[in-house]
Amino acid sequence: MIRPPAFIGIVGWKSSGKTTLVERLIPLLARRGLKVMTVKHTHHDLGPLSGSTDGERHQRAGSLKAIVIAPDAWEISGCRQIGPPPSLCELSAHVANADLVIVEGFKDAPIPKIELRRQSAEMHRPLATNDTRIVAIASDHSEAVDELPSFALDNAEEIATFIAAIAR
């Protein structure tokens, strides 16, 4: 029987370091033998590929597929798809070959999530206060962390170990 992939969300306010952390996690998780795909939610329209889009960054880091979902369009590994953007739960056929799907954004997704907190972010309101699906906090500063496992935001190795345990 084929096992569906595990999902883990990386969430936080704008400029909290989500894409940078995802870039660092992908190769670390792949070295642990996991086939990793990513799904990125953006509030912006999809633009032309420039070498620096978040989806391209995910792919360069080693994501087997990088799905980007915008308000009115979506793409898989840089190829525009026909039709309206799917919901996260409608992507199962596109991620079936993964062991793990890292979901960047989608704060309200019904999946386990790691909340990123950065002092320089535009917003500081904790998400975990109102979301029981947040399973850990990664932060660039020390603070009381809602009785959840906590990690230094720059310790991708430790965060990858935590995620790999969820994915197995």
General description of the model:
The chain is of the alpha/beta class and 168 residues long. The protein has one domain: Rossmann fold (3-Layer(aba) Sandwich), CATH 3.40.50. A hairpin with a 4-residue loop joins strand 3 and strand 4. Helix 1 runs parallel beside helix 2. 38% of the residues are buried.
* Helix-strand string: EHEHEEEHEEEEH
Spans where pLDDT lies below 50 across 5 or more residues? none
C-alpha Rg, in Å?
15 Å
Percent helix: 10-25%
Summarize the topology.
Layout: E1 6-11, H1 18-31, E2 36-41, H2 54-61, E3 66-69, E4 74-76, E5 79-80, H3 92-95, E6 100-104, E7 113-117, E8 134-139, E9 150-152, H4 156-167
Parallel strand pairs: 1-6, 1-7, 2-3, 2-6, 7-8, 8-9
Antiparallel strand pairs: 3-4, 4-5
Helix pairs in contact: 1-2, 1-4
